[in-house]
Each structure stands twice: as C-alpha cells, then as structure tokens.
Amino acid sequence: MKGKLIIISSPSGGGKGTLIKEVRAIMPELGYSVSHTTRPQRFGEEDGREYFFVDRHEFQKRIDDGEFLEFANVHGNLYGTSLAESQKVFESGRDLIVEVDVQGAIQIMERLPDESVTIFILPPSYDVLRARLTSRGTEGRTELNTRLRNAFDEVQQYSGFDYVIVNEDVFTASRQISAIIMAERQCRDRQMEGIQVILDSFDAAKHHVDEE
Ligand code: 5GP
Questions:
Q1: Is the Cβ–Cβ distance between 81 and 35 less than 8 Å?
Q2: What average pLDDT score do residues 163-172 get?
Q3: N or C: which end of the chain has fewer CB within 10 A?
Q4: 154 CB near ligand 1 (under 6 Å)
C-alpha cells in the first residue's frame, strides 16, 4: 500500500517550516524529503538539512534528467522536490510531508491526484504575516518586499487545497495538521488489506458458531 503525499503550502512567512518541524516531532514516522534550491544558503542553514544548495547549472541538469517531482521559480530562485527520494518514502507505505510553494503544490496535485492531500497554511492576517517575515530577519529589504508582494496572489490560492489551517499559534496548528494526517489514514480505501484480514477471521470462525 502506498502512503500519501502531505503537501503543505503557504505564502512566505506563513510559518510552514516551523509547523512541519513540530508535526515531525509529533509524528516521527512521517517521511520528509529535502528539496534542492538555487537560493543562497542562510546563516545557520546546513547543506542537506534545510535544502541541498546547488547552482543554476546543476539545477537545470537535474530538470533535464527528469529528477524532480515538481520544481518552480519562487521569488526569483529555483526550488524542486526530488522524485526518487519522495517515491522511495511513499511507496514504502509511509506518509511523506513536503513543503512547496503553491505552483509546486499544483504540479504534484496534477501528477499524483490520488496520492495527494493538500493543506494550505494561512496567516491570521496580513499584518501578522508582515511582522513574522520582518522579525525573522532572514531577508534584505528588496527580498522582503518581493515576498510580501507575492503573498497577495499566494493567499488567493487557498481555494485549490483540501484543507486550510489558520496559523494562529504553532501548538494548535501543528496538532490540527497531525489530526488531518491521522484522519486520512483511517480512510476506508487505505485500510482494505487490514479490513480483509479481520473479515477473513470472521469467515474462518463462522462454522464454529454454527456448531455451538
Ligand atoms: P525559503 O527561501 O523561504 O526557504 O522558501 C521560499 C519558498 O519556496 C517557500 O514558499 C517554500 O515553501 C518554497 N519551497 C521550498 N521547497 C520547495 C520545493 O521543493 N518546491 C517548491 N515548488 N517550492 C519550495
């Protein structure tokens, strides 16, 4: 049985990185795929942990070799999810959580509609998004403004997602995401093998009851 691709999207500063960290702490069995990006490495980031940092030439080569499940130009840099890494996880039956921008989410939904569960993270308001982006201090003024400008279009994309979480606080929002993942595991179609074993045990026991 295949796992599900849990796709988390939001505008930049929506808090999805922090939320995913918390969800993975609550559900350590979740798979996670580290993306590739051409964006410069930030202070405190480690190659292979937050991202695999590559130059444009290498990224383009990986596109040409069909190595990405999806890729997109986000705020002027390229980001992509590895096809091999993600397939390995969810074909083993584990759920895989992926963080992508809205363009990447749309590509995965189109490519793997039956395997995708899409969750959109909304900040509680524009002011909160702006405050979060400003206070984390990871972007210069120009980059910050690009991200804020793009957020106006990005928030409108909520309508294509299965679930929407308003990220008032990390504790609540991360538990809401975990609840969605748990609920998805209880879908009838995902449990057919286990259900069949239970029904077989009833079949096998039936004649005993008739004899009693
Ligand atoms: P940041 O530069 O702040 O780490 O990420 C910028 C944006 O790129 C965020 O919206 C983030 O979710 C998105 N992103 C991160 N990894 C991927 C990926 O593999 N594919 C796509 N399409 N977007 C990604």
A1: yes
A2: 96
A3: C
A4: no
Find all residues with CB under 8 Å of 124, minimum gap 6, and list them: 166, 167, 168
Tokens of 3: 């796992």
State the CB neighbour count (10 A cutoff) for residue 90: 20
pTM for this entry: 0.91
For residue 156, the model assigns a pLDDT of 93
Question: Domains along the chain?
Answer: 5-189 (3.40.50.300)
47 Cα to the center of ligand 1, angstroms: 15
Residue type, 184: E
Extract the tokens encoding 173: 């929002």
In angstroms, the CA 2 to CA 16 distance is 25
User: What is the H or E stretch that residue 62 is in?
Assistant: helix 56-64
DSSP output for 154-193: HHGGGGGSSEEEE-S-HHHHHHHHHHHHHHHHT-GGGGHH
- In which band, very low, low, confident or very high, does the pLDDT at 212 lie, cut at 50, 70 and 90? low
Asked if residue 104 has its Cβ within 6 Å of ligand 1, the reply is: yes
Q: Report d(CA 13, CA 128) in Å as an integer.
A: 9
Mutate to test the pocket of ligand 1, among 35, 86, 116, 158 (most ligand atoms within 8 A of CB): 35
What pLDDT digit, counting tens, does each position of 107-116 carry? 999 999 999 9
